[in-house]
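Case study 2.
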Amino acid sequence: MGFQLSNEHLFVDIAAVGDYKGTRFDWSGFITGITMREGNHSFCVPESLKSGEGTGGLGLCNEFSLKEAIGYEDAPVGGQFPKLGVGLLTRTDAAPYQFYRNYPLQPYRIDAEVRNEQNIVFTVHPKNCGGYAARLEKSISLDRNRLRIEYQLSNTGTREIRTEEYNHNFLGIDGQPIGPDYDLQFPFAIEAWTDEPGTMDGLRIDGGAVAWERVPDKPFYFHIGGYSTCASPWLWDLKHRPSGAGVREISSFPVYSAAVWGMGHVVSPEMFIRIELQPGESKKWSRVYEFYREP
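Prediction:
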């Protein structure tokens, strides 16, 4: 059984610890469904519509160390390295770390405390791995039409932790395909580029606006620059024009990097935060999502 938060505006479904068994996304506070009462609009979709394809992403799920895993280069083949929010993974060969691979896993102990109908707190307990250890606390709460996720990461080990964190927002409003009916807005002029030729075909970018000429028939992905000049209280806004339903992220942390990923059924604006913690240090940050419906 998972968990559900609710108030007069929103229903939020959260997976039980261990429902997601992959080694990519944080096991704590894995948000699988969000429904806005007004209009009964839904927002969360799976990473892939094909069974067994992808890495098991769904809804709002965050990840640490997308690009470079903590301690991976120091671990010998057969040795362990930590994946924050997941557990201790085993390095299986000499190849570079790949976020989409499933590695042998020793999960962290994770507790969940339901405080009331609008708030749940997850605690990921530290386990030492070559001097790396961290305690993660994640609080998920509702405030009217807003969903707030608060994080506190504490370095309980003897080595510095250097990583990044982001939420992989798997969004598709009411299950409607991504395409000309959607508007994705950023409050700054986008500087877009990609390392994968062809992944921006069919996309139009004008200032801070992203639009689709058609429903994508293959994955799209691009990096975003320009956010360093942003003084807006929101980071991105996704709206399905026919229904008027939308969601915007109004987090206030310094953006380290940004990207947009998606397919024909899903779009994911990704805002990264940089984390550097000496032993004994802690860092707090939060992500806030506002759900709305326009006439």
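DSSP finds no helices and 23 strands in the chain.
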